Amino acid sequence: TSMTEQDPTQPYQPPTAAPAPPPAAPPPAASGPTFAAPEPPAQAVGTTPVVTESGRKPGRSPVKWIVAALIAVLVVLGAAGATMLLTSNTTASSSAVEKWAPADAAAYYELRLDLPGSQQAELAQFMSAFPGFDDQAAFPTKLGEIGDRIVRAATEDTYDYQTDIAPWFGGQIGVSQGVPPADAEMGSGALLAPTLAAVSVTDAAKATAWMDSVIAETNATTVTRDHNGTTITVVETGAEMGIDLPDYGYAVVGTVVLAGDVPSIEAAIDANGAGGLSTTPDYQAARAALPGDHIVFGYTEPLAALGALGDLGSLDPTGMAEGAAGIYEQLLPAWAATSLKAQDGRLVMESVAPHSTALGESANRVDPIAALAPAHTVVLATGSDVGARLQALKTLFAAEPAFEEVVGQIDQALGIVGGFESATGWIGDAGIAVTHKDGVVGGGVIIEPTDAAAAERLFTSLRSLIEVGAGGMLTFETEDYNGTTIVSLDLTELAGLGAGMGGLDVGMLPDEIDLAWAVADDVVVLGVGPEFVKDVLDARAGASLADQARYTALIDAAGAENTGVMWLDIAALRGMVEPLLPADAAAAYERDLKPYVEPLDAIGGATVTSTDLDRTTVYLTVTE
């Protein structure tokens, strides 16, 4: 099919050439429950065991062979990132690929490029803000053209998405990854995590022919093996390269292509989609916690991956690695899951994990830091009960013998200011903020103190220590600002000294470098320069980030009462960066990137805790 090239910065115009008729409709999606009983082994394409070898051209690197069998899947993945709609099925929501993930997988990622349920319409609404996507009726065609361009560029015009991939691609991709055996030897192929990709297909013969052609392009040595009546096409790698590596390949089983290391493929064929990851309680809990249709779903078991590290004592005689693993075991959840979907003109990412009390409990509440952050804050990340969590983390490290000496040294160093508890016990909720106003960038830490007097004692002690230790090299200035004292520390001379000792070029540094802080009853602020401190102090009685409609709309949707928020003003950040671009880069940016970056507005979200699950919801919005 000849598609008329379109200017991506202009609204979509129908192609002048008559498009080819669409491919035959795929067979109906399978119905019924996801966790079906085992079925008889499906007839694979070409099940007669035939062994063939193709010669290798001189000069071709054997390193390419290790990935040759997976190239077909990877090209599909690359194309799919921009061509999600071509195989859209708005009625089938069940996954055809998740049942192939093995029960012992430590991670599973799924792309629903068939856009189940309402995802096609929802994504079209989101994409309508970008050039060329304003006509939602032409959405699939427009993405098809972009998909063609991506595949042609990736394959040096060898393949075309709509001609070579779309006719057989079923729109679903699931990739699972296990963990290497704990007793795997260094330098052994067993250290590579078992990996299996399952790709849904609508025409197995076309899929097989295309993948064979891609593998042939690499001039790899391939053989076919019969495994219980199913043919596996294998790219032999380890022996040819003279190292211990597993063989990789692919097999067609019914309406899916299985690709990965051969042992994983064989195990999947034997299981025939039964008793896998999708039947385990933790995975089912993750799916239930993220209901509805999605474009991306991810599931991980961090503790399983941690356990695969095995005995670390032989690698680290200090015991710190093993001790750290013990701490992580208390901090990491048994599982975590994330989904991405389009909804109401926005992209929504949700993450869930079992509730953890390893660092204590925090109650959901309206985030106080946003009300202390200036209205022109472009970046904000906050957390609740930070001081208590730091102390809980210290307790975990102190309980590990390998860290006992290190924790003791920290206690000794902080003893001069009253100890670790005195240094952190006054910290309540806290956040990191970046501001931008009138071309000036500021930033620092904003803290809601639980004990302002303790904070004042700490900063007074630190000032005295610096004055004594610096021997007059560093100078402090104080300023009364509406009844609050701002203390500024001039670091310019210290930076110049560092440069003179082989550090940074002094010419790269600002003319003046100040670290400023202020302590009030309701806020402690520490930042670069007194202007940031003043902006935070002013926000208490004036306009703050919490008063901005764009911010509150996203945070309220994610959870008005929460244990932490995040905010990224993309539009403002773009305004910060664009004037800094050199002329040649600015011209390329204006031409190639700005039309697609300009519609992006903001990212905002919050974490909400509960007795069973902790949930983080993040929104990406575009301008209307």
Please tell me about this protein's structure:
This protein has 624 residues and is an alpha+beta fold. It has a 20-stranded antiparallel β-sheet, with helices on both faces. It is globular, with a radius of gyration of 29 Å. The two termini are 35 Å apart. Residues 1-92 and 496-510 have low confidence and may be disordered.
Helix-strand layout with pairing:
Elements: H1 65-68, H2 71-80, E1 107-112, H3 119-127, H4 139-154, H5 161-165, E2 169-177, E3 195-201, H6 204-217, E4 222-227, E5 230-235, H7 238-241, E6 248-253, E7 256-261, H8 262-271, H9 281-289, E8 296-300, H10 302-307, H11 320-331, E9 336-343, E10 346-354, E11 365-366, E12 377-383, H12 386-398, H13 404-414, H14 420-424, E13 427-437, E14 440-449, H15 452-470, E15 475-481, E16 484-490, H16 492-500, E17 514-519, E18 524-528, H17 530-539, H18 549-559, E19 561-562, E20 564-569, H19 570-577, H20 583-597, E21 600-608, E22 613-622
Antiparallel strand pairs: 1-2, 1-8, 2-3, 3-7, 4-5, 5-6, 6-7, 8-9, 9-10, 10-22, 11-19, 12-13, 12-20, 13-14, 14-18, 15-16, 16-17, 17-18, 20-21, 21-22
Helix pairs in contact: 2-4
